[in-house]
Amino acid sequence: MSLSDIMSAAGLTSWAEIALILCFVTFMLIVIWVFGVRRKASYEHLSELPLDDDTAAGRTPVKGGRSS
Amino acid sequence: MTVQIEKFTYDDAIVRKFTLMTFIWGVVGTLVGIIIALELAAPVFNFELPWISFGRLRPLHTNAVIFAFTGNAIFAGVYYSMQRLLKTPMFSRTLSAVHFWGWQLIIVAAAITLPLGITQGKEYAELQWPIDIAIAVVWIVFAINVFGTIARRRERHIYVAIWFYIATIVTITLLHVFNNLAVPAGLWRSYPIYAGVQDAFMQWWYGHNAVGFLLTTPLLGIMYYFLPKAANRPVFSYRLSIIHFWSLVFLYIWAGPHHLHYTALPAWASTLGMVFSVMLWMPSWGGMLNGLLTLRGAWDKVATDPVLKFFVVAITFYGMSTFEGPLLSIKSVNLLSHYTDWTIAHVHAGALGWVGFLAFGMIYWLLPRLYQTELWSKAWAEAHFWIGTIGILLYIVSIYAAGLTQGLMWLAFDSEGYLKYGDFVETTLRLIPMYWVRVIGGLAYFVGVLMMGVNFFMTWRNRPAVYEVRVHEAPALSKTFREHSEPVLPLEAGNVHVANIGYRLERFFSTVWHRRWEGLPVRFTIAVTITVVVASLFEIIPTFLIKSNVPTIATVTPYTPLELVGRDIYVSEGCYNCHSQMIRPIRAETERYGEYSKAGEFVYDHPFQWGSRRIGPDLQRIGGKYPDLWHVRHMDDPRAITAGSIMPAYPWLLTADLDFDEVPRSMRANRMVGVPYSDDEISNGIAMAHEQADAIADEIVVQGGPENLESKQIVALIAYLQRMGTDISKPEVVAVEVEEAIAPDGAEVEGVIIAEVGS
Hints:
- The complex is a heterodimer.
- Chain A is an all-alpha fold.
- Chain A contains three helices and no strands.
- Mean pLDDT of chain A is about 65; it is low at about 55-68.
- Chain B has 28 helices and four strands.
- Chain B has helices spanning about 15-40, 55-85, 95-115, 130-150, 160-180, 195-215, 215-230, 240-250, 265-295, 300-305, 305-330, 330-335, 340-370, 380-410, 425-430, 430-460, 495-510, 510-520, 520-545, 560-570, 585-595, 630-635, 640, 665-670, 680-685, 685-700, 715-725, 730-740; strands at about 5-10, 180-185, 190, 470-475.
- In chain B, the strands form two sheets. In chain B, strands 1-4 form a two-stranded antiparallel ribbon.
- Chains A and B meet through helix 1, helix 2 and helix 3 of A and helix 2, helix 7, helix 8, helix 9 and helix 13 of B.
């Protein structure tokens, strides 16, 4: 008896639906988790990370670049 | 406690290298694109030269644009942004150099082998196994360099752009390795371990996720870094970027089967692909809006800054493509769009608009910083933007029109119930004007790229004699750092369980554990890997292991030695770029091409050759349709047979010698991947091939054709073409014999088994 015989007999046809539901539920948990956040400050820190270097500060202003 | 302040510098030399090669391969990729666009508008541009014929050049175009242009743009963006986001130079300058030179050598190898017809015959995975191994090695080098850099970071928190980079590295590794598993037959030929339906399934699992994880996620990482930099403001919503990331990782990996609607793929798989594709729409638009809203209050800058102009249009095209993708994945829409130019227009809106413009915006932002001088000309950058935009619009509008035109013509019936446009070439001729507009659009886009080259060169010329290497400072990451102390319950133990549970829940939904966890890149990478692998296995395992998904057909037998050689020529010439071998079960197709395709017909097809575009007609039932001589004349000069055909001429097939000595090696490799050739058949392979070749050559002479073709490639190709799709109409008596030989498992083998439709 080969592996494919076992798999064919195992009645797994509904697995795809189960996986879909599992993935959907997990995803919804992530959404709830992200928006259930109380600490806005931590996200503010994270979102500032790209701007938190000295590429602009010390450089002469350049065409097409940051204007600050 | 004293904090150790460390000094460090960034390696911008490697970013300069990758940025330069992004431009150079951008020129090559778009130039080859223009050549093949010309070849479709007027086949004379094939010049009857083997190595620039459409079937061989089209893979070069796609590979150059995807892996060379986009690949180098991604690496430039990753190497620039990672160092700064993590406050550390890259892990190893040696690995950076190996990565850079290795990747360029791979591209050169691709540019040499593809025009020579060395290919695996699977779209965007054409490169042969030695190059595939090199890609895997260089990719691992890249991965080590990235993870090593993360390990040495001086910023505890990992910005969302880097999440996107990690997902790219993990997923592309899996896709590349598993789609390219093949048994070599010599240095430059191989046969995939999968056959037919399963090969198709693996290929589009790979193909769609190459779009998802090479043309989308790393570029989104670049968007989330460079757009805030260029606009000088943080991303609109960091929360939304997290949702964007996880939903792409969760959903993208499932979407591949939408490339195989109404084919012999089991319907449950293609339905699953459709559902997940439609779900992708919302998070993608979340990402698009997040990008555009980052510019709120800064739209005045867009008017004056070409970098932001490129970014805005790129993000808009991202939104357009990610709306259209789900639309095309809906089965009833796909029925019209599949095999037409609609798909081509869709991918070019994505490639020219999203990928190209995002890369150009990034390059214009990088140039003054990398070369430490002002950009040579902002006006030229503006001009590039406008001519590029016009080029994209000309391209996509004409090709959308072409796709809709051809799709509707294929499906049209007249009042008598016959096909309204029964002659395929009618539907081709209608598209030629639009193909010329595409050439003009492509040229405009190409001119824009060249203008960027001038700006690049002139900016480089104004660089300082010695690049200033700035020394940065940051505290080292404390190894004993704890994000927060252990949770202390607010109430003393006692009868306050409910309150404590509430407090724990509150903590769970706070960012506390989330932030600790995202600071742990190993666990994060494992989570991404599990997500991707689980989703893949749920789709792949049933297709491979549950027999009802590929019902066997008793009369389908392995190819003869000569047919096998002919099939190799079919693959090598890239016939699959223009011809499908997959008739969908709808009346418009069965009327035009014949009996629809069944899963069991492809069990010996390594690789599958279903194709994705019908620039020419489907070939699944070509076997026995025309005499051998018709094929000889048609290959020699297609327009002598079909006026208005845009097929390249293949005169070399009539003069190039067949390599009969290759036959046993090919048969052995095919046996290793599951084709039941016996020892006798393999040892007699050369003799059998000669015998069949002689018979075909004699037949051609009898029909009044040229003599002495028995040792030429054309007879092998004819052997394959005449065999194609004929097995299911073989007489019953053969079925009984074969039933015992190859279907001993008791599967139903009576006559033709129809693929299960509906789940």
